[in-house]
Amino acid sequence: MERRDWLLLSLLGGCTPLLPESGSVASLLAAGLPADGQAEPLDRSTLNFWRQQVRGSARGQGVSWEANRAPEFLLYTADKGFVPATDVDESILPSNGDANVQVQVAGFRPSAADQQKFEKSGHGSLRIDLQQAQPTKGMLETLAFSAVAALQPTKQGALPPLDQLKMDVGTAWGKWQKVPLPGGSGSWTWNFFLQKKDSLLARAASLFSLAAPIAPILGMPAIAKTALGAFDNFFGHVQSSSPTQWLFQGVELPVAATREAKDNLASPIVLHSGSYAVVPREALSAFGKAMDKLEINRGMVVPKGTKTTDVYDAARETIADITYLGLDVKVQHAVFE
Questions:
Q1: Residue 72 counted as domain residue
Q2: Domain range holding 97?
Q3: Greater model confidence, 297 or 12
Q4: How far, CA to CA in Å, does 104 sit from each of 39, 163, 233, 257?
């Protein structure tokens, strides 16, 4: 058995609460065996991304990554429409304090080209990381929350219906449904990629009775930041065992839920309760030209005034050449003792 196969499946067997009742470490390990006994060479660019680039480390400055697929976030409100999340008027934020943040993937709509890539590859993986910028009182280190989800095709190998492409990220973290951000500041990363259905992550996902087409297969709640670095290294080896096509490839970005946090961070993503659209950087200009006539409804980007009953039909044709995620974000302001 390949060493990285054993590592991933051992981790799944020991750390995730989502194992099917019939699962066992032995069956997981057996499923990890390559079908032909041969492993593909490591994808070095993917491995280096997770080891050197994703956290913005200075030692990763020379690493090549697909910056054109970097996620760009836009907050949608009924009165302002779409606004880049780094340019949101800070007057909508509380002046200071702590915050609890909940995130849901409310929708996913690939471009026609990316849908074809998915149907040829047969599997997608979404990894989301949220980190604190300040430690919770009494803790020596800041905490990080990571979730890895699988996007599975239908039995016919097609993309599932749009109304099923959503996920409550908090389900991957058990009791930790909310991410606490002391001082209202933190950071997040969003990475979404495609691999063949015989990839290690795809084989691991096939062992779960997934309740939805996008469903978490691994949750790492409230781990120390130093442990996150180890997980990045581990995950890089796992992902790089198979060729990757990126839908979104993102490095760590600062987020702010208060005015004080926004003032203390460099161009942070403003977190406010509401809906967000996430588009690849290469599509930001095209999205900007169309966004005045668009809105978000049920996680889908559709023409303004679209009836709720017509949302998913309209979404198939609207900005058809742009891949996007729709997010629902809920921010609750609190004081952590």
A1: yes
A2: 45-334
A3: 297
A4: 35, 14, 26, 17
Instruction: Name the region of 222 (left: φ>0; alpha: ψ -120 to 50; beta: rest).
Output: left
Of 10-24, 44-58, 103-117, 202-216, the one with minimum mean pLDDT is: 10-24
25 part of a folded domain: no
In a domain, 248, yes or no: yes
- Residues forming beta bridges with residue 303, ordered by sequence position: 294
State residue 132 phi and psi, 5-degree precision: -80, 150
**In the chain, how many domains are there?**
1
Residue 91 is predicted with a pLDDT of 94
pTM assigned to the model: 0.88
- Of 267, 234, 235, nearest to 252 by C-alpha is 267
Q: Alpha-carbon distance 259 to 240, whole Å? A: 39
| Joined tokens for residue 56 | 């913005």
> For 260-309, how does the pLDDT look when each residue is reduced to its tens digit (9 = 90+)?
999 999 999 999 999 999 999 999 999 999 999 999 999 999 999 999 99
CA distances from 94 to 5, 254, 261 (A): 47, 17, 10
How far is it, in rounded angstroms, from Cα 120 to Cα 118?
5
DSSP letters, 241-261, are: TS--EEEEE---EEEESSHHH
Measuring CA to CA, which residue among 41, 37, 21, 29 is closest to residue 5? 29
Query: Is residue 270, in this structure, part of any structural domain at all?
Result: yes
Angstrom distance (rounded) from CA 67 to CA 246: 10
